[in-house]
Amino acid sequence: MAEVGEEEEDYMGDLSQFISPETSNSSSKKVSSSTASVSNSSNKKSRAQNRHEQRKLKRERDQIEEDQQTLERLGSAIPQSNIGFKLLKQMGYTPGSALGKQGSGRAEPVGLDIRRGRAGIGKEDPKVEKLRIEKENSEMKRRKEEELMADFGSRQKELWKGRRITVNFRKAEAVLAQLENRDVVEVEKKDENDGEKEEEVEEEEITEEDLLDILMKLRNEFHYCLFCGCQYESAEALLSNCPGINEDEH
Predict the structure, then answer these.
(1) Does position 18 have pLDDT exceeding 70, yes or no?
(2) Which of 245, 74, 85, 96 minimizes the C-alpha distance to 172?
(3) Is the distance from CB of 168 to CB of 212 less than 8 angstroms?
(4) How far apart are CA 234 and CA 242, in angstroms?
(5) Where is the sequence biased in composition, kind Basic residues (predicted)?
(6) 93 exposed, middle or buried (CB, 10 Å; 0-12, 13-18, 19+)?
(7) What is the pLDDT of residues 53-76, one digit of tens each?
(8) Are 99 and 91 in contact (CB under 8 A)?
(9) By the 8 A CB rule, do 179 and 222 touch?
(10) CA 20 to 30 Å from 70, out of 53, 205, 220, 245?
């Protein structure tokens, strides 16, 4: 008898003793056969694809050669043994001359356009159509960008013009007040750190007509030109020395 402290043998650790060798061999054969079938099918698919690509390339080469031969034949003159040429010659046709009694017809045969696509007659070649559409889209995009840039430039110009009108009007208003010995009313600047919220007063829009009115008042009453920056002795001196009323004329 074995001693009590001796460890018992683990008879469930190795399950291979309960499996027959025939079963294990058959399962391994099934795995190997399935792997071989998968590899064979993939090889067949790759070979079929290669054959398809080769046939496609050969067909394209044959078409290119055929097109070249056709164009070469079209480039050569019609032989005199041709039946159509003989009939034309019997009716008075001279090689190189135009058709018709008055010689106002065609001098060259009707051109031939080789088409390999399956589209009907009158349908544009897909490659040419694709290039044409891309060109039209790029042209449309370019025109749109130009319109946007022109619109942006005009808006920026109008904004700058409005700012210049406001600045010049404020300057003219200050000069007029000084010439009339009036106090210039300045808007008090508010403290940015002030936490109290006050209602914003909308500033009255100053137009180009308003600026022109105050400029004319300075010129007519005080002989003063804002853009020259000086007061002339008389109206004649103002007209002879000042280039104009507007800022652009200076």
Answers:
(1) no
(2) 245
(3) no
(4) 12
(5) 44-58
(6) middle
(7) 888 888 888 888 888 888 787 777
(8) no
(9) yes
(10) 53
